[in-house]
Amino acid sequence: MNHPTPLSQALRRPLPAALADALAARFGDRFSVAQAVREHHGRDESPFPPTPPEAVVFAQSTDDVVAVIDLCRAHRYPVIPFGAGSSLEGHVLAVQGGVSIDLQQMNRVLSIDADDLTATVQAGVLRKQLNEELKSTGLFFPIDPGADASIGGMSATRASGTNAVRYGTMRENVLSLTVVTPDGKVIRTAGRAKKSSAGYDLTRLFIGSEGTLGVITEVTVRLYPVPEAMSAAVVNFPSLSEAVRAVIQTIQLGVPIARSEFLCAATIRAINAHSHTTLREAPTLFFEFHGSEASVKEQAELVQQIARDHGGQDFEWASRPEDRTRLWNARHNAYFACLQVRPGCRAISTDTCVPISRLADSITGARRILDTAAFPTMILGHVGDGNFHAVLLIDPNDAQEVADAERLNDEIVRLALSMDGTCTGEHGVGLHKIGFLVEERGDDAIDLMRRIKAVIDPHNIMNPGKVFTTP
Amino acid sequence: MNHPTPLSQALRRPLPAALADALAARFGDRFSVAQAVREHHGRDESPFPPTPPEAVVFAQSTDDVVAVIDLCRAHRYPVIPFGAGSSLEGHVLAVQGGVSIDLQQMNRVLSIDADDLTATVQAGVLRKQLNEELKSTGLFFPIDPGADASIGGMSATRASGTNAVRYGTMRENVLSLTVVTPDGKVIRTAGRAKKSSAGYDLTRLFIGSEGTLGVITEVTVRLYPVPEAMSAAVVNFPSLSEAVRAVIQTIQLGVPIARSEFLCAATIRAINAHSHTTLREAPTLFFEFHGSEASVKEQAELVQQIARDHGGQDFEWASRPEDRTRLWNARHNAYFACLQVRPGCRAISTDTCVPISRLADSITGARRILDTAAFPTMILGHVGDGNFHAVLLIDPNDAQEVADAERLNDEIVRLALSMDGTCTGEHGVGLHKIGFLVEERGDDAIDLMRRIKAVIDPHNIMNPGKVFTTP
């Protein structure tokens, strides 16, 4: 069982008065212990109840972050980085108390190096903001987790999303990070060269470290020329399994699709209700193609043929920008659309990812597991990567539903692990997958991670209780 | 100065007799202290004089590697992994003595999962062997450093090569590693899912760790469908700078070229002499295009136009497989062709990589620096990544030439560092770039790397003296 039990308050420590005084002296009204401010920083998009930090500092610079870390370290007091609050795994919850460093005021795009296809941003820059500022350059930043997350938070959770099938994840698209380590040092993990063999890969060490090794304050990302042509398509299938098989074959043939999203009939129903669309309520794939005019046409024809071979029908095209935007907005709002299916519910979202050949078994297996549920469930996700999300809509006050949801979640994750997959394709470990991480990688690998954590953060002040249980 | 002074024998330790006995008992005739065997394992393609280990074990399994590490750890004695011996930075040289673990008998392709576009191989599998075994599948493994390196060694040095501009480096193309850590534990760093946010990125930690954190024994790599169409082209330019500018523009426009190699006139001359080709002795670009027939045609036309705009001429095409093979063989033999320009010489090869917009300044700057040399020099490399190699052909017995070469090397590296580039794009740090690594990333970053090294390898038995100086 991997239920939100890490929310135990046993390790929670109050804010030392001397630390509060020092932070207030240094940050003035950018330091807050106000209840509303604390509560805002103690919640994310996870199903966990709010767990506020004891205080919040609004950082405006890397130096500010150094100051918070130095003061907190002196008091052995937890530090929790806060970006946009769009995490799905409780990453920002202050389970041991602590000071939340809000990075939202570190929202400047520091440089757009169009000739190098890179941009360097402060950690609090939101992905939509970055793409807005890139508009005049003919370049874009492709990583798109749906939510308007911060680039720092996306780095910290190794986020990806709909475009990852073509452009990769944050792992592939971050060139360099500026990080404040728990000893208050400022490290730039790499230069801006596209590749390097210079020493240990500190960039990748911090990507996905979920705030447990330091605070990311600046990020250099890769950019891409906006494709000459883009086209999206919607296609319905007679069954979940046929839809998934169409995607598998598309990937195996190496068609360079930019996006391929699966949505089950129940998800489409929720989207129609929420976004006032009239999509056919059947297992559905959304595709997007990027390239030259000729290449997009070629890809689209190939995928259409593959889809037809798997019973795909009602192929609908969206080539005009506004039609594509409407389609992807509907997709991005799917999570919120699902939530509205059952007012007052909380959503538990699985995030398994498997080798592509096992995707059909993994999804149909998940569907079978979910069919036993007494509450609404949906399946959707970035199937081109082998990644999908089962969404379980539970009444958080119904202990039986909570327990049932956790049991079904466990079964879905274990099925993915039995296929050499992962418990989390893109959301991260946070509070909810600590046990699964051990199952997935084994005690020796976790011991290695723990030793790295211990040597970088010997006082365990950086976002304690996430990724691992605290010893 | 970063001359081969780490070759000091001060830290060299003889093989403890008890360790020798234990290894002999465990491995029989797969354990050797024969002079010829030791010498073979004490050299690579670097300019360093041979520095043999005290003994060699021929491992046939991960368990064998565990046994060597366990025995060596008990004696606090160094362990040096050995793949194909094609390293360029002295990675396998036994500067502190030690037992070389030869992985060449771990040469089995363990599984080809064509439906997942992955293969799992033992670390000693050579890249050409893997592609040979993939032939019937319609898939290929793209990373191509020129030398027929082992997949384990390529992982350990974060290798890349000619195809990296399109397919990425080992960093992007390894899904998972099996690693024996210095405490004798066997860790599988990840599953086979294409992406994962499950904990610290142990895969990327070991990629590029150059044998200093453990021994890689198995590697799961990504495969790609063999493109429907492939075409190569050779084009000459009036100057080095025009050639490089053509590449820069190609990259900035996002043309998905598969390869783009620069060769200076002197390199072409060396190739013509060595490979009996009749290429025009001018600054030259080799291109390769992968994709559908239509896409390859489109890319080729676009690049041809860009090349013409920069004075490119004599565009020659190689679309037949045998013509392409001849072309790339000539490119791959360039290093050996250069060596033959000056019989008895050793080659010092730089390996800087810079953001693409700085490539022209970086290469023309290097050319200016090299123009002062009293020995032959060439420039070639994977310019699409911003990576190139200056090859300095020196008489290793001429102290003045050695000193001059190191000085020129220093200048070229510092020029790249001043452009936010790296001292090594793909060869690794090894013995030769230890000082540059500190200049490049700074003391705090190196301290972090050292702490990670110390906590994973507390007795410093894994390939000591590489990446960092031993304290």
What layout of secondary structure does this protein have?
The structure is a homodimer of 471-residue chains.
Chain A: H1 17-27, E1 31-32, H2 35-40, E2 55-58, H3 62-74, E3 79-82, E4 99-102, E5 109-113, E6 118-122, H4 127-134, E7 139-140, H5 151-156, H6 164-167, H7 170-173, E8 174-180, E9 186-188, H8 202-206, E10 215-222, E11 224-225, E12 229-236, H9 240-252, E13 259-263, H10 265-275, E14 284-291, H11 293-309, E15 313-318, H12 321-332, H13 334-339, E16 346-349, H14 359-370, E17 377-381, E18 389-394, H15 399-418, H16 434-441, H17 443-456
Parallel strand pairs in A: 2-4, 3-4
Antiparallel strand pairs in A: 1-2, 5-6, 6-10, 7-11, 8-9, 8-10, 12-14, 12-15, 13-14, 13-17, 16-18, 17-18
Helix pairs in contact in A: 1-3, 9-11, 9-14, 14-15, 16-17
Structure overview:
- The structure is a homodimer of 471-residue chains.
- The first copy, chain A, is an alpha+beta fold.
- Among the domains of chain A are: 109-225, Uridine Diphospho-n-acetylenolpyruvylglucosamine Reductase, domain 3; 227-431, FAD-linked oxidases, C-terminal domain (Vanillyl-alcohol Oxidase, Chain A, domain 3, 3-Layer(aba) Sandwich), CATH 3.40.462.
- In chain A, 36% of the residues lie in helices and 19% in strands.
- Chain A is built from 17 helices and 18 strands.
- The first copy, chain A, has helices at residues 17-27, 35-40, 62-74, 127-134, 151-156, 164-167, 170-173, 202-206, 240-252, 265-275, 293-309, 321-332, 334-339, 359-370, 399-418, 434-441, 443-456, and strands at residues 31-32, 55-58, 79-82, 99-102, 109-113, 118-122, 139-140, 174-180, 186-188, 215-222, 224-225, 229-236, 259-263, 284-291, 313-318, 346-349, 377-381, 389-394.
- In chain A, strands 15-12-14-13-17-18-16 form a seven-stranded antiparallel β-sheet, with helices on both faces. The first copy, chain A, has a five-stranded antiparallel β-sheet with strand order 5-6-10-8-9. In chain A, strands 1-2-4-3 form a four-stranded mixed β-sheet.
- In chain A, strand 5 (109-113) and strand 6 (118-122) form a beta hairpin.
- In chain A, helix 14 (359-370) runs antiparallel to helix 15 (399-418).
- The radius of gyration of chain A is 22 Å and the shape is globular.
- Chain A starts with 16 loop residues before the first helix and ends in a 15-residue tail after the last helix.
- The interface between A and B is large, with 93 and 93 residues.
